Amino acid sequence: VQLQASGGGLVQAGASLRLSCVVSGRPFDDYAMAWFRQAPGKEREFVAAINWYGDKPYYEDVAKGRFTVSRDNAKSTLYLQMNSLKPEDTAVHYCASGVAADVIDYWGTGTQVTVSS
After folding, report:
1. Taking a C-beta distance cutoff of 8 angstroms, is the pair 5, 107 a contact?
2. Which residues contact 46 (CB under 8 A, 6 or more apart)?
3. Calpha distance 109→117 (Å, rounded)
4. Model confidence at 27, in pLDDT bands (50, 70, 90)?
5. DSSP code of 15?
6. Is 111 in a helix, a strand, or coil?
7. N or C: which end of the chain has fewer CB within 10 A?
8. How far apart are the C-alpha atoms of 73 and 111, rounded to whole Å?
9. pLDDT of residue 36
10. What is the pLDDT of residue 54?
């Protein structure tokens, strides 16, 4: 099973980015998907998750109102639309897959998001 994240970059505060995560090696729509992030010197933290069907997103407080998680099961791809980015969003962002958002069994490669002030 492979999860390949992409879409990170260096942006200014207030800008937007859309992260993508392509999954291969198992049926994408059998599993919940999630985004996590890890800032320098900090522990990895949960950002957002979505159920297998894509109709039940869930967000951590840092993401509410600014980020939107979605998935395209036909493309085996998870997305994270991030708007109004802040310097404190700077982190390596990881996608993850599991039977539930809190039961993760596969982690993807990270993609770096850097937000300058």
Report:
1. no
2. 34, 35, 36, 60, 101
3. 26
4. very high
5. -
6. strand
7. C
8. 21
9. 97
10. 92
Over range 25-44, report the average pLDDT. Answer: 95
* 8 A C-beta contact, residue 53 and residue 71: no
Q: Structure tokens of 15?
A: 């800008």
Residues 6+ apart with CB under 8 A from 61: none
> What does DSSP say about strands 103-116 and 9-12: parallel, antiparallel, or unpaired?
parallel
Distance CA 65, CA 50 (A): 16
Sheet harboring 103-116: ordered strands across? 9-12, 103-116, 91-100, 32-38, 45-50, 57-59
Inter-residue contact 35 to 18 (CB < 8 Å): no
Instruction: Report the C-alpha gap between 62 and 49 in whole angstroms.
Output: 13
CB 24 within 8 A of CB 95: no
